[in-house]
Each structure stands twice: as C-alpha cells, then as structure tokens.
Design brief:
The chain is an alpha/beta fold. Helices cover about 30% and strands about 25% of the residues. It contains nine helices and nine strands. It has helices spanning about 10-15, 85, 95-105, 130-135, 140-155, 175-185, 225-230, 255-260, 280-290; strands spanning about 30-35, 40-45, 50-60, 65-70, 105-110, 165-175, 190-195, 240-245, 270-275. Helix 5 packs across helix 6 (about 175-185). The termini are far apart. Belongs to the AB hydrolase superfamily. This is Dienelactone hydrolase domain-containing protein. It comes from Kineosporia corallincola.
Length: about 300
C-alpha cells in the first residue's frame, strides 16, 4: 500500500508535537563586538528546551533594513563548537560564513543547535542520542524541536530594526546542509536556501560509513518518503544543493537531481563539484551568489 502524499500536515504528524513557545522569550543582549565591517552581538532568548544562545552579525553603515540569513553550523562531532565557528571565532576558517555574509551586507543569525556549544551542559560530550531518546519516549522527535528553534531564532531576528523580514535566506554545511533542506518546509518565510555537502537521502544512509544522525531520526519517515518529498513541500523557496564527488554526505545527489527533474521541481538546483566534505572559497562563492537574489 502506497503511503499518502507528504503534505505539511503529514510532515507535522510524523515529526510529532512540539512544546508551546514562551509567550515572552525574554531576549537579552549580552555583548557587542566591533568587527571588520559588522558588529557581532551575543544574544539569548527563551526556547521550550531552555535558553537559546546566538550571535547576530549586523553590517556597519546600513541605511535601510537588510536581508536576513540564518547560518546553521556543522556537526563534525565537535559539540563544543556551534555559533562560534560560523562566526569565525574558533574552528575551521572555511566555516565562517556568518561573518563573511555580514561583511557582504547581510544580517546573519547563528544560534547554537541543541546539544552544541552553550547548549551543551556536558562539557562537549555527545548529547545527540540523549536528546533524541528523551523525546522519542514522549512521542516527539529532536528534529521537530530543532526546526521549531530555527523559527524562534527568525522570530527574534525579524524584530530587529536592521532586518527586512520579507527577505530571509538559509545556509549550512553538513548538518547545517541537511537543515537547509528541512527548514523551508517548516517555515515558509525562508525563500532562498543553500545546502553544502549535506544532501544525502535516507535511502543512501543505511550504511556503516554514513548511518543516521540523531537529529534526522523520524520514526516511519523513510518507509515512504525521502528528502525530495521534503524539498517539494517548499515550492516558494529556491534551493541550491552543492554536492561533491568525494563526500559521502553528498551521496545520492545525482539521483536527487533526476527525481526532482521528473517531478518538474524547478525550484531546486543541484551543483556537482569535485572535492571532499569541505566548504572552500569557490563553493562559498556559489552560495553567496545564490543568496544575492535576496537583495
């Protein structure tokens, strides 16, 4: 028996419920730091699972509200890193896309995902499977809470006078690249999204060298659906999927492209490049050019 088509309602059913968001998130500005071409603000606000911690980078010299880009950090098993890496404070310099986009005139917001950096009370240990299992026993998923927190981050950012709430994009590498495919299906405010080295479908993840990241575990989802179905739920968003030929997390990109072509899903573009699981300058340039359409 074929599964029913994946609709927004069916997706929410599979993802499970999320707790109610705080009526007053209590935003707080902790610090402001002058950087090269932008100001980096450390902010926090309440979310259902605790207190979110994020960097907001605001270009200097703005004369009008600017586009907003949500910058999702990678995973890499580095639970002590999150927002700091995409803002260029620690980690790999090729991951500093939140800072680079701010230098290009975009306002960026980069929160720590659940279990990373300021959201990791276990001093950098892997909390992913704990965060997942403690939700599964309640009929919930970690992915749903992560997606809800993306929306709550956008809710905070669009209150800023420097942000044009009608122009919102998303970018991510690896774990962030996976979320770049899911977030627009959850929040239709996102109209441009870039996934770098993170487009592996569920059907290609049943291998020991890939497996399933805790955040992507949704009971029953892979029995009838895959990432193409998620991408199809956001026709109002234009996606760029960057895949490389030596990257196992880009595995299946050719099939994704062929399947989307059969669906006539013209809102998704797949770029196949040489390389590994990296986000070097030439790939970031492709991503930034894509996001320029927010202007």
């Amino acid at each position: 028996m074929s599964p029913p088509p994946l609709t927004p309602e069916r997706l929410r059913e599979l993802l499970g419920p999320v707790p109610g968001a705080p009526a007053d998130p209590g935003p707080r500005l902790h610090s402001e730091t002058e950087c090269d071409g932008y100001v980096r603000r450390h902010v926090s606000y309440d979310v259902p699972s605790g207190r979110a911690s994020a960097f907001v980078c605001v270009p200097t010299g703005l004369t009008a509200p600017a586009p907003l880009v949500f910058c999702h950090h990678q995973h890499a098993g580095q639970y002590d890193l999150g927002k700091s890496e995409v803002c260029g404070l620690r980690g790999h310099p090729d991951q500093a896309y939140a800072a680079e986009l701010a230098q290009r005139g975009f306002v960026t917001i980069a929160p720590d995902a659940i279990g990373f950096e300021d959201r990791n009370p276990a001093q950098g240990r892997n909390l992913g499977w704990f965060e997942l299992s403690s939700r599964l026993v309640l009929g919930r998923t970690l992915l749903a809470d992560c997606l809800q927190e993306i929306s709550l981050a956008l809710d905070h950012a669009v209150t800023l006078p420097e942000v044009d709430a009608t122009r919102i994009g998303f970018i991510g590498h690896s774990y962030g690249g996976r979320m770049a495919m899911w977030a627009p299906a959850w929040d239709e405010r996102i109209t441009l999204s870039v996934s770098n080295c993170g487009c592996i479908p569920y059907r290609d993840s049943f291998t020991l060298d890939t497996g399933f990241q805790a955040e992507m575990v949704v009971p029953g989802f892979a029995d009838g659906y895959d990432v193409e179905d998620v991408l199809a739920l956001a026709p109002g968003c234009r996606f760029l999927l960057i895949a490389t030929d030596e990257d196992r997390w880009s595995r299946g990109a050719w099939d994704i492209e062929a399947n989307l072509r059969r669906r006539e899903a013209g809102h998704v573009t797949v770029r196949h490049l040489s390389g590994g699981h990296v986000f070097p300058p030439q790939q970031r340039q492709l991503a930034y050019e894509w996001l320029e359409d927010l202007r």
